[in-house]
Q: What sequence folds into this?
């Protein structure tokens, strides 16, 4: 009997509903609220000061999946934002212009904005706009781009210095003092959840895979990005791991029959998530690994928060989000995924909104085609703007790609 | 045994009837229009009529093109990318690359020896540099789409047209006319601009000589010449080229029908 079926999905919804419920009351209860970004976020430090945390990107993707993005994006465009500005930005600005009223109730106003502009300079303009709108202090954490093979110790020290400055500002905003003990505990819980999350992701190395490492992982990744440092987050990944182990024992997978295994690069088109997944399901495709769940942090190869070195490990984490890595590192990561997760092909999904993600994808396709002789498909749409999605065009590309793969496979047999 | 391929494109719908021995028995081309289901039906009926064949004689039908799922009488659907590759290798053996320029998109396809797709690239979402672009250019010059290719071949001093945007090409052409430039020179520039853009797509899949030019625009002789000049090698196009998707679909229909008759064989 399936005891844990759909636990990962249902519990995720419950956790987020509770989190958004708390957020809606934060202003009223006069509890401090901070806005920050997902990529390499420093939530442990902010949580140590008792901040409620708001992630504008998560709000935007929630609007996308609830088919509410279009209206907010239009609102921002009416206010003067160009059609070329990132859909996430316009969605979030649209919510702010609507006074925080959105499909999940009410979003609280911030007391502090913390901009970690890891890998994306648009972030900085985004939070400057919010700072102006909310008349609220903005702290810009200058996170160095990962330029070489290794992260220099000086870069980590540079971020730690800024984290100490941020801590002083948090004290001023909240009137509270930092407990190093509490910070260590938060960091310890984060590391525990990270261990479990990696074990969940690695379940997809099995054949057939019990997990879709993209279409399911992008849901399962929410707690590790926004609720790290909490016991609920640890319990969540224990549950998801059990669900996956149970799927293996019952022979259940994300699709009835796995025919192709692919690595997927790029974000999902949230407003058309289901239609996009269906394009692949029809061909029996499981995404065994993908880059998008590594946007928040890349824990696959041992990076962890560390209670022995809380400040340094928060700083290290801040730099190691996917879009803050240089192209060579990203390509090496995809190569590793292809080998370790036994993939038949690479799918690159370029999105108009996010240059930080989509840059270099054409080169990456070339690299895998020529050097690795790995079939690679390039498709385009957007992560937030429902207008940039043409199902017929996407379907032709996806169908043709798997027709060719099928042909190659039957010719080989 | 007779099979059929129906290629429902954005602008035109093509129907082809094929005999098991490889002979093309009938073909038809009708505008797709608003009713896609009806267009597929009409192309099929028209092809039957030209061949003098009854519909019950056709044992397997494959739908292709954007409207492939609207070929309601079809037995299978295969993308036009696979079909153009298949058709081109069949009619023009030795094809290494296919360039398909249709009404709304351009595809570069790298083809294997058995007509299989090795790689492909398409234009991005907009219709820049496709058949629609030529239509817009013809429209603003008051010419028929069928004649602009030949007109362009009269050019002695081709213009440099940089814009391949279907929307902005009109104002660009109007401004050249206002400057007194000759129609043939403008049109040659338009064809050269599409050729340059197509070449970029071909390079992305790794161009090799042995190019089959297919799709509706392949009827345009000016386009063939512009491509040949850019590539420095011959471009193969024939009166069958606009039907290549439907021909490939019919070839897949033949394979499937044969496989159904003798399942162990394939």
A:
């Amino acid at each position: 009997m399936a005891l844990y079926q759909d636990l990962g999905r249902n519990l995720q919804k419950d956790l987020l509903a509770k989190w958004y419920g708390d957020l809606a009351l934060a202003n009223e209860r006069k509890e401090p609220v901070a806005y920050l970004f997902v990529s390499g976020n420093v939530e442990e430090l902010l949580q140590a000061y008792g901040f409620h945390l708001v992630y504008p990107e998560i709000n935007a993707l929630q609007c996308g999946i609830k088919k509410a993005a279009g209206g907010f994006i239009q609102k921002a465009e009416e206010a003067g934002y160009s059609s070329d500005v990132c859909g996430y930005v316009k969605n979030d600005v649209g919510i702010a212009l609507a006074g925080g009223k959105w499909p999940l109730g009410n979003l609280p106003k911030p007391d502090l904005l913390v901009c970690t502009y890891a890998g994306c300079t648009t972030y900085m303009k985004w939070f400057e706009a919010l700072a102006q709108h909310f008349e609220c202090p903005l702290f810009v954490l200058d996170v160095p781009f990962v330029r070489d093979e290794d992260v220099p110790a000086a870069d980590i020290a540079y971020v730690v210095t800024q984290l100490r400055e941020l801590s002083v500002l948090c004290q001023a905003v909240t009137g509270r003092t930092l407990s190093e003990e509490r910070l260590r505990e938060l960091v310890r819980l984060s590391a525990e959840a990270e261990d479990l999350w990696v074990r969940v992701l690695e379940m997809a190395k099995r054949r057939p895979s019990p997990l879709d490492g993209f279409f399911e992982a992008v849901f399962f990744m929410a707690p590790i990005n926004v609720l790290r440092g909490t016991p609920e987050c640890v319990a969540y990944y224990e549950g998801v791991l059990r669900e996956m182990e149970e799927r293996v024992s019952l022979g259940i997978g994300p699709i009835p029959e796995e025919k192709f295994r692919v690595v997927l690069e790029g974000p999902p088109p949230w407003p058309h998530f289901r239609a996009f997944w269906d394009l692949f399901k029809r061909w029996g495709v499981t995404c065994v690994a993908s880059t998008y769940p590594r946007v928040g942090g890349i824990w696959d190869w041992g990076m962890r928060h560390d209670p022995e070195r809380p400040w340094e490990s928060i700083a290290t984490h801040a730099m190691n989000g996917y879009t803050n890595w240089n192209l060579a590192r990203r390509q090496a990561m995809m190569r590793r995924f292809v080998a370790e997760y036994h993939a038949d092909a690479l799918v690159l999904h370029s999105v108009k909104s996010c240059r930080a993600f989509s840059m270099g994808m054409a080169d990456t396709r070339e690299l895998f085609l020529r050097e690795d002789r790995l079939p690679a498909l390039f498709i385009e749409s957007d992560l937030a703007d429902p207008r940039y999605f043409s199902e017929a065009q996407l379907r032709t590309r996806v169908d043709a790609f798997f027709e060719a793969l099928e042909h190659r496979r039957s010719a080989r047999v | 045994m007779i099979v059929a391929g129906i290629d429902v494109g954005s602008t035109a719908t093509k129907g082809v009837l094929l005999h098991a021995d490889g002979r093309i028995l009938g073909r038809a081309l009708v505008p797709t229009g608003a009713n896609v289901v009806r267009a597929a039906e009409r192309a099929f009926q028209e092809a039957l009529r030209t061949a003098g064949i009854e519909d019950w004689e056709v044992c397997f039908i494959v739908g292709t093109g954007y409207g492939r799922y609207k070929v309601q009488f079809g037995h299978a659907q295969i993308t036009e990318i696979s079909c153009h590759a298949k058709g081109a290798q069949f009619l023009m053996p030795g094809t290494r690359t296919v360039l398909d320029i249709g009404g709304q998109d351009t595809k570069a396809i790298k083809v294997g020896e058995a007509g299989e797709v090795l790689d492909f690239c398409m234009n991005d979402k907009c219709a820049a540099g496709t058949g629609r672009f030529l239509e817009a250019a013809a429209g603003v010059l008051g010419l028929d789409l069928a004649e602009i290719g030949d007109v362009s071949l009269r050019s002695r001093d081709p213009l440099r047209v940089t814009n391949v945007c279907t929307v902005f090409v009109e104002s660009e052409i109007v401004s050249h006319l206002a400057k007194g430039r000759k129609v043939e020179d403008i049109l040659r520039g338009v064809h050269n601009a599409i050729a340059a853009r197509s070449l970029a797509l071909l390079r992305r899949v790794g161009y090799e000589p042995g190019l089959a030019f297919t799709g509706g625009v392949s009827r345009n002789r000016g386009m063939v010449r512009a491509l040949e000049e850019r590539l420095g090698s011959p471009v193969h196009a024939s009166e069958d080229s606009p039907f290549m998707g439907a021909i490939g679909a019919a070839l897949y229909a033949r394979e499937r029908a044969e496989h159904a008759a003798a399942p162990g064989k394939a």
Q: What stands out?
A: The longest helix of chain A spans residues 180-202. The interface with chain B takes residues 362, 369, 375, 378, 380, 388, 390, 392-393, 396-397, 399-401, 403-404, 407-408, 411 of chain A (CB under 8 Å). The domain at 7-178 of chain A is CATH 3.40.50.11890 (Rossmann fold).
